[in-house]
Design brief:
With 39 residues, the protein is mainly α. It contains 3 helices and no strands.
Length: 39
């Protein structure tokens, strides 16, 4: 796959998963808490 095609696919995925990325900070906190508890 060309770099340009990969970039377009990436941007398409970003747009499609925009809601997921907007919730990413909360997800990071959840993951961090889970990692701290598992230690």
């Amino acid at each position: 796959m060309s770099v340009e095609g990969g970039t377009m696919a990436f941007l398409d995925a970003l747009t499609r998963h925009k809601q997921l990325f907007e919730r990413l900070p909360a997800l990071q906190v959840t993951i961090t808490n889970a990692l701290c508890k598992s230690r």
